[in-house]
Specification:
flat; 6 strands; mainly beta; 1 helix; single chain; three-stranded mixed β-sheet; 59 residues
Length: 59
């Protein structure tokens, strides 16, 4: 588990190369690049998250 030094976003890496990044929808003025969550991780904020949510691929 690491935090990006520029944005503070929490990422998890495994030995096989899998990278997990936490994302949250950006609303309103949305000046924050990252937000701390109640899960103890810092999530990257993105606009138009509904596009990502509607177009998922199950693997």
């Amino acid at each position: 588990m690491e935090s990006d030094v520029l944005t503070g976003v929490t990422k998890i890496y495994d030995k096989a190369g899998l990278e997990i990044e936490f994302l949250i929808g950006k609303k309103g003025a949305g000046v924050e690049q990252a937000l701390k969550t109640n899960l103890g991780v810092t999530a990257q904020t993105l606009r138009h998250m509904e596009v990502i949510i509607r177009n998922t691929i199950e693997v």
